[in-house]
Structure formats: structure tokens, C-alpha cells
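Page 42, continued from yesterday. The earlier attempt failed because a stray header line got pasted into the input along with the sequence. Redoing it now with the clean sequence only.
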Amino acid sequence: MLYGIDVSKHNGTVDWKKVKSAGKDFAFIRLGWAGYDGRIEANGGLDPMFHANVKGALDAGLNLGVYVYSYAKTPTAAIVAAKETLELVKPYQLTYPIAFDIEDSMYQSMGKAINTEIAKAFLSTVEEARYYGILYTYKNFAESYLDMNQLSRFDLWIAQYGSKCTYQGKYGIWQYAGNDGRCAGVSGACDLNIAYKDYAQIIKSAQLNRLGSITCEDYDKLLEQYDALHADFQKLQVDYEELARLHDAQTDKLNQIISDIEALVKKYRA
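This time it went through. C-alpha cells are written below.
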């Protein structure tokens, strides 16, 4: 088992080195909330502490995931939220999943079917981008307002506060404390979690979350470098052919050819 916390702006400034020293292995940072249309920043939903928390946690050596609180009303809105989330996390190396937090009371009147499709849309979009997605909700919501059979291919981060989790389905992370949770480095209450999977190892081994894999941006850069090297090679080949013409390889001027080629190599390495 691995122990971690999750935080948002409500936790204030976190001393991440103390969190790490307290034996925590991972942290989930709130990226923010997605509005009815799925947009985050345009709706003012970006958590003002997001970037500072991410940088602090990474600098302290914690494994890191993020979560997005949802108000998305449609699957299309959930896709918008997922795509913006993927852009916002792009500068960072996430070794834990991207979590879709669906728990708001607005969903209680929307019905299981649409709620399930909204969650599926967000998590599928995250997966298609080769990130690891996870569903976050609390026990009663999972049992009453989602069709968990339809969402079974996604990992679950379940919240139920107490000494035991009684949820009967499978889950990878248990949030076991909220208002009563405490962690060194965090002022006041702090959500506490136990992970039953080594997500960092799973994600790294599968080369998800842009870890160890070549992205489209990386590929474009490689193509640019290849084009530049190929141009240099073609010029070098022309220079070599000119040398071969000036120095008949059948004569005793071979040493001069070698000397001239070495000079060219030094020129192109400079």
C-alpha cells in the first residue's frame, strides 16, 4: 500500500518537503473545476494554487496526479474538459492518473445513464491521449448515480471516510479521511488516501502520461533535426566528391585526401 494526500486552494500553501518527510508517496492536485460547457480557464475554474502545488510536489519528489471537479452537463462538455486538462498538464511529468471527480449534487437529478456517459467521455478522451485516467467519487454516488458496470474498465478512486471501505466493487485508491485528516506540511484538514496499486510503476512501464514515449511534438523536432543533418550530409558529400576529383585516388596523394577530410570533419563539428 502507498499513502498520499490530495489538496486544492482550500489547503493554502503546502510545505511539500514536510509532506514527503511524513512518508507520503503521492499527491493529487486539484487542477480546477469544469463548467457546464466543460471549459475550465474560461469559466474561472483553474485552481489558483494548481501550478504552485504541482511544482512544489514534484520538487519534493512526490508522485503526482491531478483531478478535475466536474459540472459538465453533457458528454461533449466532458470531452472539452478532458482536452483542456491535457493541455494544462502537458508541461509536467505526471506519474499518477488524471482523475475525473463526479460527485456534485446536480448529477443526482440527471440520471445514471447521462452521468455514466459524461464520466466515460472524459476518461476515454484522457486514455486516447495515452494518459492514465481514474474515476473519483464517493461510495453512495457510485452506487446510486452511476452505472459502474459501464465504467468497469476505468480504475476507481473511492471516497468513504472511516476505518473500513465497504464498497463492494473494485477500486484502486481509497480516500479514507477528509475533515479529520491531518498531514505534516498542510495546515488544517487534509484528505488522506491509500493506493493499492503502484500507479507510478504501471504508468512508467506502459509509457503513459508522456513518460518515455515520443510525442507528436518530439517527433516534429526529430524531423527538423533530421532535415538539418541530411542537408549537412549532402554538402559534405559534395565536398568529398570535389576532393576526390582534385586528388586522384590512384596516386600517392591518399594521405592528402585523408588530411583534407579530417579538416572537413572538424569544420562540421565546430
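Notes: The radius of gyration is 27 Å.
Reminder to self: strip header lines before submitting.
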